TrEMBL record:
The gene is Spag4. It comes from Tychaedon coryphoeus. Gene3D superfamilies: Galactose-binding domain-like (2.60.120.260). The keyword Transmembrane helix applies. InterPro entries: SUN1-5, SUN_dom. This is SPAG4 protein. Residues 1-131 form the SUN domain.
Amino acid sequence: VFPGNCWPFKGHQGQVVIRLPARVYLTAITVQHITKEASPSGTIISAPKDIAVFVSLLGPAGGDGVDAVREEETLLGMFTYNVEKDPIQTFPLKNMLLPRAFSHVKILVKSNWGNPWYTCIYRVKVHGKMENQRASTKGPD
């Protein structure tokens, strides 16, 4: 993680949808930013502050006779990245609400720490157990 080597987006709000390499039972998310000491300006006001994590539930739109698909998002957690704490912060997700695996996760940055022009995300890690690993750990029925 080096200063300026980030995914920047304009303003203080933005989102990214991450396609996972497999379907995953999500347990936590980690966000990383640079430290104040590593920043050339001595500040990290471009760090994300308020963050929400969603998954999408896909299902039939229904009623119109067309095989359309509607997308419904479910919130798995809202948290605040604290620039006064460790630059690598992990937040648990409310996966017990949806005991199933997902292939995509949406990270919504709702605010940053004061930069009006842009927000930087240096690293996001998604934690969980792959669907096929969970199935293989079950005992006989």
